[in-house]
């Protein structure tokens, strides 16, 4: 996984015990040296006329990762807003395989960005609604602010989560609030299983090679350039060509065959999440259509 930058000591401590995946980017790496990383200003100018100009509006910077303010298709303006990031971005360290965290008190803060990447507000969580690294790699925080309050105060709307499976070939942007940087590429395909260390994720999104995401981009929303909707959450990549090790996830097909793609990065699908949140953006893992892992 993309190792959280400020909380790197968690990854090192756990990796030393052979217990947690982390795709470690060198701490000195900057988006300025990533040839595929395009600044918000440059991306706006270069966007194809037929596509929406994806910006950093609605993304957030965590202490150690990236994230975004999200809403579901049925969310109301009066609902408490939600922030999406990775399970491995939790301040408490990486959840164990099989561990699912639900409705835990949290006062974590998030730096809200506008279209140009300027931090315009500090948002605060009331709780961690959901967090896991089993089958997927997600964390969802509920905020103390409603969507309407954020819109009224800062003129920023939440990003809508797509509730259908993403499609190969889709032009996407990985929007990192931590680095205030946009990475443009396409969905190359899907990994039946993605294995990294002790962790396995199902039906992961594989990027084309242009999205050279780095440490700190963990939790970034993966945005469909045509619709502006979030189709996945960025989380890992194979750095050194190793097989299924920490920092080097491998793809495993339905027959158990392993493929290693050095330099290729991945994200976790989120289309199944809206079915697990009901009225008032409240988590209900027992909802009939909810397939997320349970505690």
Protein described:
- The radius of gyration is 17 Å and the shape is globular.
- It is built from three helices and 19 strands.
- With 295 residues, it is mainly beta.
- β6 (109-113) and β7 form a beta hairpin.
- The protein has two domains: 10-27 and 34-54 and 166-269, Thrombin, subunit H; 55-161 and 272-283, Thrombin, subunit H (Beta Barrel).
- Residues 6-49 have low confidence and may be disordered.
- A six-stranded antiparallel β-barrel has the order 10-11-12-17-14-13. A six-stranded antiparallel barrel has the order 2-3-4-8-7-6.
- The protein has helices at residues 8-16, 40-46, 147-154, and strands at 37-38, 59-61, 66-71, 80-85, 100-105, 109-113, 119-132, 138-146, 159-160, 171-176, 181-196, 199-207, 221-224, 230-237, 250-252, 258-259, 265-269, 277-278, 282-283.
- The longest helix is centred in the N-terminal third of the chain and has 9 residues, at 8-16.
Summarize this structure briefly:
It is built from three helices and 19 strands. It is mainly β. The chain has two domains: 10-27 and 34-54 and 166-269, Beta Barrel (Thrombin, subunit H), CATH 2.40.10.10; 55-161 and 272-283, Thrombin, subunit H, CATH 2.40.10.
């Amino acid at each position: 996984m993309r190792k959280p930058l400020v909380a790197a000591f968690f990854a090192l401590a756990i990796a030393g015990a052979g217990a947690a995946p982390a795709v470690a980017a060198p701490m000195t790496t900057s988006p300025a040296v990533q040839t595929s990383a395009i600044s918000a200003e440059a991306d706006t100018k270069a966007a194809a006329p037929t596509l929406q100009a994806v910006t950093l509006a609605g993304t957030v910077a965590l202490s150690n990762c990236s994230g975004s303010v999200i809403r579901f298709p049925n969310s109301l303006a009066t609902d408490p807003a939600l922030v999406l990031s990775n399970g491995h971005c939790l301040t408490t360290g990486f959840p164990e395989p099989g561990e699912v965290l639900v409705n835990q008190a949290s006062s974590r803060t998030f730096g809200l960005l506008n279209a140009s990447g300027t931090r315009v507000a500090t948002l605060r969580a009331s709780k961690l609604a959901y967090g896991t690294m089993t089958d997927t790699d997600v964390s969802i925080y509920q905020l103390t602010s409603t969507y309407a309050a954020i819109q009224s105060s800062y003129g920023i709307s939440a990003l809508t989560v797509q509730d259908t499976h993403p499609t190969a070939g889709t032009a996407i942007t990985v929007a990192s609030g931590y680095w205030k940087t946009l990475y443009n590429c396409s969905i190359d395909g899907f990994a039946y299983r993605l294995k990294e260390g002790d962790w396995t994720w199902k039906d992961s999104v594989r990027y084309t090679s242009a999205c050279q995401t780095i440490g700190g981009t963990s939790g970034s929303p993966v945005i469909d350039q045509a619709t502006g909707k979030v189709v996945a959450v960025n989380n890992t990549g194979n750095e050194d060509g190793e097989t299924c090790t920490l920092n080097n996830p491998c793809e495993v097909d339905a027959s158990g065959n392993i493929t290693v793609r050095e330099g290729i990065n991945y994200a976790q699908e989120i289309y199944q999440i809206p079915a697990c949140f009901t009225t008032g953006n409240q988590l209900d893992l027992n909802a009939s259509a909810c397939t997320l892992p349970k505690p």
